[in-house]
Amino acid sequence: MRQSLVAGNWKMNGNREDSSTLLEGILAGMADIKAEVAVCPPAILVPLAVEKLAGSSVKVGGQNLDYHVSGAYTGEISGPMLKDAGCDYVIIGHSERREYYGDTDELVARKFEAAQEHGLVPILCVGESLEEREGGTTEAVVERQLDAVLEQHGIEAFKNAVIAYEPVWAIGTGKTATPEQAQEVHKFIRDKLAALDAAVAEGCRLLYGGSMKPDNAAELISQPDIDGGLIGGASLKAEDFLGICAAAS
Ligand code: 13P
Q1: Is the Cβ atom of 14 under 6 angstroms away from ligand 1?
Q2: How far apart are CA 223 and CA 197, in angstroms?
Q3: Which domain CATH number covers 214?
Q4: What is the pLDDT at residue 146?
Q5: Which atom of ligand 1 is nearest to the CA of 209?
Q6: Is there an atom of ligand 1 within 6 Å of 240 CB?
Q7: Ligand 1: which atom is nearest the Cα of residue 172?
Q8: Is the whole model's pTM more than 0.85, yes or no?
Q9: Is the CB of 166 under 6 A from ligand 1?
Q10: Ligand 1 centroid vs 171 CA: distance in angstroms?
Q11: Is the CB of 230 under 6 A from ligand 1?
Q12: To pair with 56 at 20 to 30 A between CA atoms, which of 12, 26, 141, 142?
C-alpha cells in the first residue's frame, strides 16, 4: 500500500510571522492525519519551518535547487544546502520554473539526479498546458517530460521519487481537472512506469496538483492512481491544508 502524501507548495509567499502562524496551525491539527504531510516553503523560510516542525511528523521540502554542489552560482541553492537545512523533499520541474525560469526537460533531469544524489526525494512535476490539452497532446507532453528523466537515469530512479501531475491550466485558476481526467493521466503515468518495472510503478506515489481544495480533494484522491496532492493556494491556510490532509487520510 502506498501511503498518501500531501505536500504544500507555498511558492513565493510568506514571512516569518505568518509562516509561524501557519505552521502552528498545521501542527495543531495533525493528530488525526494519517497521510504523510510535507511543506515546501520559500528557501529563506526553510530553517524556520524545520525549527517549528522539529519533533513532529511533518516534513520539509525545497521548491527548487541548482544541480551544482557549490561555487560561483550567484543566487542559487544546492541540494546539499537544502539537505543540511533539514529538507527531505524538493520540488523539481514545476511548471512555473519551466515557464518563467527556463527549466528545460534536460535541466529538470539534472536537478532530479542532483536531488537524489544528495539525499532528497524529488517531487517531479509534469503536466500539459491548456493549448496542449486542447490539441490532444496531453499524453505526449507528459511522456516527453518523464522520458527526459527515464532516459538519463532509468526506471530505478523512480524507486525513491514522487511524481506530481499538475495540468498547467488547473494551477491557480480554480479549474480543477475532473477526477476522471486526472485519473486518466495518472494511470497513463503508472502504466508507463509499469512497462519498465511493475514493482517500481506500484510503489511510486503519484500526486495531483492544480486547484485542489478541501471540497474536491477526497474525490480526486480516491481515484486508484492518485496518491495525494501537491497543493498551492490551499496550503497557505492551515484549515484548508488540513482539510486536504484529512481527505487523504
Ligand atoms: P494551486 O493549488 O494554487 O492551483 O497550485 C498548484 C501547484 O502549482 C502546486 O505546485
Answers
A1: no
A2: 22
A3: 3.20.20.70
A4: 98
A5: 6
A6: no
A7: 4
A8: yes
A9: yes
A10: 5
A11: yes
A12: 12
CA distance 127 to 93: 10
Residues 6+ apart with CB under 8 A from 60: 38, 39, 40, 41, 46, 49, 50, 53, 86, 87, 88, 89
171 lines ligand 1 (CB under 6 A): yes
The pLDDT score that the predictor gives to residue 175 is 87
The residue range of the domain holding 225 is: 5-248
CA 149, distance to chain mean position in Å, is 16
Looking at the chain, how many residues does it have? 249
* Catalytic sites, residue numbers: 94, 166
Number of domains comprising the chain: 1
The whole-number pLDDT of residue 174 equals 86
Query: Is the distance from the beta carbon of residue 167 to the nearest atom of ligand 1 less than 6 Å?
Result: no
Please state the atom number of ligand 1 nearest to the C-alpha of residue 174. Answer: 4
- Name all contacts of 147-153 with Cβ < 8 Å and 24+ positions apart: 148/105, 148/106, 148/108, 148/109, 149/108, 149/109, 149/112, 149/124, 150/196, 151/109, 152/109, 152/110, 152/113, 153/109, 153/112, 153/113, 153/116
Whether the CB-CB separation of 14 and 42 falls below 8 Å is answered with: yes
Q: Candidates 162, 211, 237: which one to mutate for ligand 1, based on the most atoms within 8 Å of Cβ?
A: 211
Ligand 1: nearest atom to the Cα of 173:
4
Instruction: Give me the residues of the chain with pLDDT under 70, please.
Output: none
